[in-house]
Every structure is written in structure tokens, then in C-alpha cells.
Amino acid sequence: MLAAQAEAQQSPVALNQYERSRAEMLADLDDPEKAFVFAESAVAVGDIRGAIDALERVLTLNPGLTNIRFELGLLYLRGGSLELAESYLLEVLEDPQTPEPIKLRAQGLIEEIGLQKSRHVFRGTVTTGLRHDSNANTAPDRLLVGGIPFNIADQDRSTSDVSAVLSFRMQHLYDLGGQYGPFIDTELTVFSQSYQDVSSSDITFVGATSGPRFRFGLDGQHSVRPYIGASTLFLGQEHYGNAARVGTEWAHALDPRTEVRAEIDARWQNLFNSDVNPTAKNFEGRQITARFGFRRALTARLAIDTALSLTDSNLDASFESNVATGIELSLRQSVGNPFGSNLDPANLSLTAGYALAEYDQANPQVDPNVVQEDDRWRIGLDAAIPVAEQWLLNAGLAYARNDSNLPNDSYDNLQISIGVSYNFRRLR
What CATH fold (topology level) applies to the domain 121-427? Predict the structure, then answer.
């Protein structure tokens, strides 16, 4: 990216390159490549206005170059021309051929422009729908008690069920001043799932995190957000517990098509035994997770997302403490919208993941001679189809399987879901 180059240096080499490329461009004003080369050298010496003029000429010669519109948006933002920057970045968003990572980067910059015009940005998603689980109570096929196998009672066998799902996610950004912040970034998540028959699996979750988001670099391509958070969880209509957390997120745009990100998160869980969950206290304790991800646009319509994770759970019951390492791969493909070409493209996502969980000690109540080890698999296919401005139709198919060396924790589940989402955004 032009605007992501190093700080301008008035070195003789840079100045000579600037003068030479300028002369070559002026000698052949119809050559877009010479104009682009001059724009690079102009940024290197701090001539933002000259770089803008050169890229405007490139765009005149080749109006379909989305990457040039993106670069112009960055340069106008650096120059303080917020309206022009926003105009170019909106054109990048509206172009169906724009790669997804560039769209995400443009969307983030538009949010920052909005913050410079106003102090507050609210945005989020409300989703509701139905979900069918083939094993809603995640029941195994058989049990071990003290190393002795037992058949499962009929009422405790895996049960398929339908549930109603409602989720609400909102982000609030508050501008503390400056071209790239910092911003106070607060995120709220509310999730509720209510089953028709298996009420013991009902879930209600409320959680929030908040912290300053700092951006660095000439176009804000580096992002760091330390945060604190808290959450509460109800399971089976009983208060299951509370959690406090602290962490840091980091992201870096290597180029308009590529982003790397990392996060470390530590949380402490305070749980409550109940009639529905009599052993909840076993899972009380500390959990630390480290994640590293990589996102790349392979084409204008296809993007790949990979993530590695490591979670260390140090819980009150040593036989529940474990270390889990995982990997996830996701492919996202934009396709034509079946509801009309005037709507945004539909997005199809295929995700596959695997995690290995290795436990600290054997559970004497299950088998005193076997330390638990789980292989956790998941694959899912999701579709998000815009049906109107801000409205999407969602559908998903997912299969999860936990293969354990202890039958008590071996189970699988096939999940089918359908719903609608509403995306909102408001400036104040």
C-alpha cells in the first residue's frame, strides 16, 4: 500500500527518485504505470498532494481499479479530506469485485471517519431463528463408573430437539481524539437458546468487554486493544456462574488483501452447583487462551481464514484441568444473490476445525486408571444472503464430534439452523 510506506524521508536517494519519476510521468501522461511509480515516490518524500494527483490520473485512465480507489481513500484521509476519503472508500465497499479483506479494511476506515465527524458509533447485529440438534443434551452412548461399563437409562440417552435462538451483538466506539483514535471499544453480547423439550440444555449468556483501541502506522494498519470483561451464564434455567476476563487483541494489515491477528485472553470462572448442574464447581478456576490467525483474499470473491489456538484450563477438579490445542480453517466465497442483482452478494462459508484436549489426571469416579484425552472435530457450512438493506437470511449445517478415550465424554451432534439477521449502525 502506498499510504502504508515508511515515514517520509528527505534523503537524496528518495528526492532523486521523486524528481526522476515525476519527469518520466510528465513526459508520458497517458501511461498509468509511470503515474503509479511517481505516486509511490511522492509518498516516500511526503508529497501527499502529488501522490493524489497521480492516482487520480491513473483512475481517469482505468476507472475500474478498485485498489486505486482504496489508496486514494487512504491518502485523502491522511491529508485530512474526510469527505473525499469516505467517498472513495464507500465506492470500494459498493464494488462487488472488491476482495473481502479490502472491504473489511475500508469499513473500518469509514467507521474511523465517522468517529472524526461524531464522537460515538453504535453498530451491531440482531439474529433470531430456529435450530435443530440431533443430540441436544450431548449424551454419550454408554458410561463408565469406577472403570465398570454401564448402559445409559432411556431418559438419559441422546435426544433430538428444536430450539429458538436469539442473539444480540453490539459494538460502541467512542473517539478520544486523533486521526486514528484511540477509541474506547466496548462490545456487548447477549445469547439465548430455549429448547422445546430438553430444558436442561437451555442457555442464556450475557457478556461484555471494554478497552481502548489504538491504531498505528500511516494509515492505521496496526491495531492493539487491551480489554477487561465480565459475563454471566444461566444453564438449564439455573444460574451456572460468572466470569471475569482480561486480554489483548492485536491485528496488522500486511497489505489490502492480507491480515494477521493475535489475541491472549485470561478468564476466571466462579460457578455454582445446582440440581441441574450438581458438579459445576469442578469446572471453576482459571483459563488462559492464546490465538493466532491469518486472513487472505485469494481472489476478489474467495478468502481463506486460518486460526491456531492453545488453551490452558487450570480448574478446581484436577481431572477436569486440561490443555487443548486447536486449528481451524475457513473458506468464504461470495456468489450471486438469488434474490436480485441489486442486492449485495451472498456469502458461503465452509469451516473445519480440530482440537486435541489432554487432561491432567484420571477421574477416579469414571476410571482411576485412564487419563482422559479428547479429539474434537467440527465442520460447518453457512450461508448469509442479503434479502433487503440491512437484512440477511441465514442458514447453517454443522456436525460436531467428540472422540474420547472415555465413553462418558464421547458424543456427536448434527445441527441445522435457519434465521434472519438485522445489521444496524448509528452515529451520534
Answer: Porin (2.40.160)
